[in-house]
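Hey L., structure's done. Input below.
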Amino acid sequence: MKQQILAAAFISATAFAATPALAGDVAKGESVFKKCASCHMVGEGAKNKVGPILTNVVGSQIASVEGYKYGKSIVALGETGATWTEEEIFEYLADPKKYLRAKLDDKKAKSKMSFKLKKEEERKDVIAYLASLSSNAAATEEGEAASEEETSTTTN
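Output:
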């Protein structure tokens, strides 16, 4: 019983500790997003361009923007039910092809997005900016908190 409670406490602490690590600056992220704007749009009236609309991306299912023609590999990942959490976006932006290959366990997986946002701080900032534009982000955080609460109550 004590081990179960300690395990639940550790899981909860780990989950909460991971979130602040991605805390970025929304204003800086808006500036960083200029690098993304040649392919992506956000906000009211946004349209798909070379890349999909990124409004509401945080917390959404991967490869789910209506009307956008995704590549096969990211569609396959989206079909698993995977969602764009802040952590997933952080990994993806560093190297989209490498991310898809790891997630799909497929050495031949490809990404239509060749751009890599290598600087960690820039990734954190642009994710903070995207989260500020995402009504899904709050729902994802609430769902994760409810899931953690459910885990801790079932182990008691």
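Residues 20 and 124 are 10 Å apart (CA to CA). Confidence is low (pLDDT under 50) at residues 1-20, 142-155.

-- N.
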